[in-house]
Amino acid sequence: MRKRAIVSVSDKTGLTDLVRELVAMEWEIVSTGGTRCTLRQAGLPVTTISDVTGFPEILDGRVKTLHPNIHSGILARRDNSEHVKQLEELRIDPFDLVIVNLYPFQETVARPDVTWDEAVEQIDIGGPSLLRAAAKNHHDVTVIVDPYDYRKLLEQLRERGETTREWRRELAAKVFRHTAAYDSLIADYLTKATSPDDYPERLTVTYERVQTLRYGENPHQRAAFYRLPNTQTGLPAAEQLNGKALSYNNINDANAAWELVSEFSVPAVVAVKHMNPCGVGLGNDVLEAFEKAYAADPVSIFGGIVAANRVVDEATAEKMHGIFLEIVLAPDFTSGALRILKQKKNVRLLRMHGECERVPYGKLQSVQGGLLVQEADVHDLTKEQCRVVTKKVPSESEWEQLLFAWKVVKHVKSNAIAVVKDNQTVGIGAGQMNRVGAAKIALEQAGDRARGAVLASDAFFPMPDTMETAAAAGIAAVIQPGGSKRDQDSIEVCDSSGMSMVMTGVRHFKH
User: Fold this and answer.
1) How far is Cα 493 from Cα 334, in angstroms, rounded to an integer?
2) How far apart are CA 118 and CA 102, in angstroms?
3) Do 273 and 253 meet the contact criterion of CB atoms below 8 Å apart?
4) CA distances (Å), 147 to each of 227, 229, 251, 324, 414, in order?
5) What is the helix, strand, coil percentage profile of the chain, to 5?
6) pLDDT higher for 381 or 1?
7) Beta strands per DSSP E along 285-351
8) Using CB atoms within 10 A of its CB, is residue 394 exposed (0-12), middle (13-18) or buried (19+)?
9) Please, which of 18, 223, 457, 473 could form a disulfide with 443 given CB 3.0 to 4.6 Å?
């Protein structure tokens, strides 16, 4: 019996070359709509779906393949005598190959001006049904959803006259990944359009693989990097201009640096090591910002990741070139800066596109057997939202530094303390088991620079010991959430030491 294929694709990459070879192997090609027109224009013989179903395509093409003559020919098991007998009695010829890809829903909803009706019209019904039927019956039917697989299909048909059962199983799995992702995109679009602030009873998200990684956090761990469909910002959309492939740890650190530097509207540079900022500087230009970030901690920045929120120019590149950096991220680089930085072949240079954005459903964090989901921490603080609780009121320059410190401490692992002065971090205490420990680390790093500086804490002070340590170091002003039963104890230490303290009413735990 002559082999039969049903072909219906929106992505026509490589289509005519594939079908031309199938026709040369004496396959019968059954096709629909636009695919049929493309093949006929190429001079290839095609049987229409209507010839098989005995029924016209109707409802503007919404109904064409949903017919027993199609699905019976796909789903019938050839090793089941009853199935074969029923096909013969009903004069239904089986299909051996299904080549289908779906309406471009993802591309449609990526358009900023897309309407609800346009999106809904791109929800494919017949295509997923064909794919699922063929994938279910992969014992007898080969199913192709990706033009990438055309070459291997032809290789196996030339060599064997059929595909291997092992490969058909792989293709079936690929189909169900594809249809699951397609349905997930639809569910996500409809959910955000109808209930944008809700956490639905089922969370359906899908990611596309960007690359497999050499290893994960450690060489014995496997890893890969995925992105949200249609994402245009952040690390998944970055353009790498130089250096080795990014590692798992590189991506994590680079993301931490980009999230923090995106907090600032003025020129800013952030240096990150192991997911924590080690130096943050603000300046009139990117060079001044980098010099401050470097001077904040010239030891920890070695081998670190540096992010700038302005174009890196030649003068800044000269300064960066003098130290060992793993990655430099920026909106762009001047040609002179690239020439200088590329002298080190291993430094990774990333051109970033757009600002950091909230991903659907916020932040996702896996736990064993489950997933934690929360909104991204995008809270912005203004001076008006703060409450001065001490006798001494911060000066205007201190207010500026307090708000700067608050942006920094938000991105430091808890327990977190940030000490800043003159638009530069001078001490950071991160990830400690108690707050006074974090303060001691930050103040010890700051040394004499702590005198007249301001201190930010990501959460309240349960005891006055942190403020006592800060007062001894010469801290001038403190910003913290407040809310402890013993807030008054810390306030009294500030009053007796001549420090000002403001409370935000908001904390920034980061685990």
Assistant:
1) 50
2) 15
3) yes
4) 21, 19, 30, 43, 48
5) 40, 20, 40
6) 381
7) 304-308, 325-330, 348-351
8) buried
9) 473
Return d(Cα 416, Cα 442) in angstroms, integer: 9
Residue type, 290: F
Residues labelled catalytic? 136, 274
Nearest to 281 by CA among 300, 509, 299, 289: 289
Which pLDDT band, with edges at 50, 70 and 90, does 401 fall under?
A: very high
- Residue 66 confidence class, pLDDT cut points 50, 70, 90: confident
Report residue 359's pLDDT band, with 50, 70 and 90 as the boundaries.
Answer: low
Question: What are the residues facing 318 on neighbouring strands?
Answer: none
Tell me the C-alpha distance between 46 and 80, whole Å: 29
> Is the CA virtual torsion 276, 282, 285, 290 positive or negative?
negative
Residue 264 pLDDT: 95
Query: Among 302, 313, 297, 270, which residue's Cα sits nearest to residue 426?
Result: 297
Q: Which two tokens stand for residue 485?
A: 């039963």
Given a cut of 80, whether residue 395 has pLDDT beyond it is yes
Mean pLDDT across the stretch 321-347? Answer: 96
Residue 176 host element (H or E): helix 165-194
